[in-house]
Amino acid sequence: MVEESSTTHAYGALPFYQVHFVVKGNGKMFEELLLARTRKRVRGMVRKSVEDVWWEGGKIAERLNSDTRLKQLLLTVLKDGDDIFVDPVENAVRIYSRFKMESGVVTSLSREVIEVYNIISGHVKSMMREFE
């Protein structure tokens, strides 16, 4: 005999969000060139510090790795956050990080984070213009 539980479970919208910065354009045309993600070397378990940050992926990774201002910002931004991804889709290029709890979304959008996404999107736009 199976007994039903008296507690109800809320299946539906969960309090996790993902912020996307979108650059419009033919992303599929540049798929191999614009696919990239950050990698980082972290020291410490409790008091984590990011020692190094670099990009892996297509041709855009080389350009992002050579931007010293972006690297300085990423060393501070990625201390609390996850990796950043550049992902071409049908008619755009998405720039995003992993899902965050509802309370963490607002705090994760600091001035430095927005500047990082703006720098990345600038490099994406220039590459799209260059290879069209």
Question: How would you characterize this protein structure?
Answer:
By secondary structure, the chain is α+β, with helices and mostly antiparallel strands. It has one domain (17-130). The protein has five helices and seven strands. The strands form two sheets. It has a five-stranded antiparallel beta sheet with strand order 2-6-5-3-4. The N and C termini lie far apart (66 Å).
Keywords summarizing the entry:
5 helices, 5-stranded antiparallel beta sheet, 132 residues, single chain, 36% helix, two-stranded antiparallel sheet
**DSSP helical segment count:** 5
Beta fraction = 25-35%
- Terminal residue distance: 66 Å
Derived from helix and strand composition plus strand pairing, the structural class reads: alpha+beta
Q: What is Rg?
A: 18 Å
Strand order of the largest sheet: 2-6-5-3-4
- Classify the oligomer: single chain
The count of β-strands is 7
- In helices, the fraction of residues equals 25-40%
Morphology: globular
Q: Which regions have little confidence, pLDDT < 50, spanning 5+ residues?
A: none
Largest sheet geometry: 5 strands, antiparallel
Compute the number of structural domains: 1
